[in-house]
Design goal:
Rossmann fold, D-amino Acid Aminotransferase, Chain A, domain 1, Dna Ligase, domain 1, 11 helices
C-alpha cells in the first residue's frame, strides 16, 4: 500500500518544538510500516508545498502524526487538509483534534457526558484571579498547550500568592486564557485506547515517581508529569501495567475512558491522563488523541512494551484499525 506519513520535524530542544517529533521517531514509524511491505513517503506539515505534494502524489492512506503549524487548534490543520483532498488518514478528525486542544472545552464535554474531571475555572484577565471556589492545592494550566508545556514545579500552588504569581507568568508567556484546576492528590495513571468497533481499552498504566531523587521529585512538583519530568526524568520513574489498583477501580477507569473516547469523537487511538484520589475516585485530566510515539520516551509505546508487544506492532495496529474504520464508514455511507 502507498502510505504517507504527515509529521512535524523537531530540529531543536526548544520547548517551542516540544510537540514535534525527532528524526529518530519519524524514521522508526517509517521502518515499522515498511516492514509490512508498504511503500512509505514523508510529508512535513510545515512545508509550504504540503498541499501540492499530497495532491500530486495521492498516497492511498496517511499515517498522521502531524501537530500542525500555528494557532490554538493547530492539530486540526493536517486532518482538515486531508479531508479537502479526500485522502483517508489515521487518527481523529479535525473537529475532534480541535476540541481536544482546548482543555476547557474538553472538560465541559466530559462533564456533559457524566465523566468525572477536576473542578476548574477559566481566568481571562488578572482581575479574575481568585481561588475562593477551590480547596488548596490548585494547579495552574495553559489551556491550549500539549506535552506538559507550561507545567512546572511551581504550577501546583498552595496559597493565593502562588496562584497569582504562576497565573501572571502564564499570561505573560502564552498570551491566552489560563485554567485553574483542583489538584487531585493521588496516583498518576495513563490509559491507552486503540480501535473503534468497539475501541479497545488497554490496561491502565501507573506512573510511580518514588524512584526519583529529591531534586528530580521537586522538578516534578512532588509527583506530576511536568515538562521537566517528561524531557529529563521520565525514564527514571517506575511504570506498572496494569496499575496497582483494585479491580473495581480499574473497571471504573476503563468505563470513564470509554465514555470520554466516545464523547470527544476520538478515532483509532487516544491516550487519557488521570489522577486517582485517596478515596479511589478517578478523574480524567485531559486527552491526547495524537499521542507521542517516541519509541523510548512516549507513554503509548511504553504501554505496548510492558504488554510484551513491539513498537512495530503498535504502529501497524494503528494503521490497521484506521483502515478498518475508513472501510466501514465508506460502506455504511453507500
Amino acid at each position: 500500500m502507498k502510505i504517507g506519513i504527515t509529521y512535524n520535524l523537531r530540529r531543536s530542544a526548544s520547548d517551542k518544538e516540544a510537540e514535534f517529533d525527532w528524526p529518530e521517531t519519524i524514521d522508526a514509524v517509517k521502518k515499522s510500516l515498511e516492514s509490512r511491505g508498504h511503500k512509505v513517503s514523508l510529508y512535513e506539515a510545515t512545508s509550504p508545498l504540503l498541499f501540492y505534494s499530497l495532491a500530486l502524489d495521492r498516497p492511498q492512506f496517511i499515517f498522521n502524526i502531524g501537530e500542525g503549524r500555528n494557532g490554538p487548534y493547530r492539530e486540526a490543520f493536517v486532518p482538515a487538509l486531508l479531508d479537502e483532498l479526500k485522502i483517508p488518514y489515521s487518527g481523529s478528525s479535525a473537529l475532534s483534534l480541535a476540541i481536544s486542544m482546548d482543555k476547557v472545552m474538553t472538560k465541559e464535554l466530559l462533564l456533559f457526558a457524566g465523566v468525572p474531571t477536576p473542578k476548574f475555572k477559566v481566568i481571562k484577565t488578572t482581575d479574575q484571579i481568585t481561588t475562593e471556589a477551590f480547596k488548596f492545592p490548585v494547579i495552574v494550566k495553559p489551556i491550549f498547550e500539549g506535552s506538559s508545556i507550561g507545567i512546572t514545579s511551581k504550577s501546583v500552588c498552595y496559597t493565593d500568592e502562588e496562584v497569582r504569581n504562576d497565573t501572571v507568568k502564564a499570561f505573560q508567556r502564552f498570551r491566552r486564557p489560563v485554567m485553574l484546576e483542583e489538584f487531585i492528590d493521588g496516583i498518576e495513571v495513563t490509559v491507552g485506547i486503540i480501535g473503534n468497533f468497539p475501541p479497545r481499552i488497554l490496561p491502565p498504566m501507573e506512573i510511580d515517581f518514588s524512584t526519583l531523587s529529591k531534586r528530580e521529585l521537586k522538578a516534578s512538583a512532588g509527583g506530576i508529569q511536568t515538562y521537566k519530568f517528561k524531557t529529563d526524568y521520565s525514564t527514571k520513574a517506575n511504570y506498572y501495567v496494569p496499575a496497582r489498583l483494585s479491580e473495581e477501580v480499574m473497571i471504573n477507569i476503563k468505563d470513564i475512558c470509554y465514555k470520554a473516547f466516545v464523547a470527544l469523537r476520538n478515532r483509532d487511538i487516544a491516550r487519557f491522563d488521570l489522577r486517582v484520589d485517596k478515596n479511589s475516585n478517578p478523574y480524567i485530566l485531559e486527552v491526547n488523541p495524537l499521542p507521542g510515539l517516541d519509541p523510548e520516551h512516549s507513554d503509548f509505546p511504553r504501554i505496548y512494551k510492558l504488554l510484551g508487544k513491539t513498537y512495530g506492532e503498535l504502529i501497524n495496529d494503528i494503521l490497521e484499525v484506521a483502515i478498518e474504520r475508513h472501510k466501514t464508514e465508506n460502506s455504511e455511507a453507500m
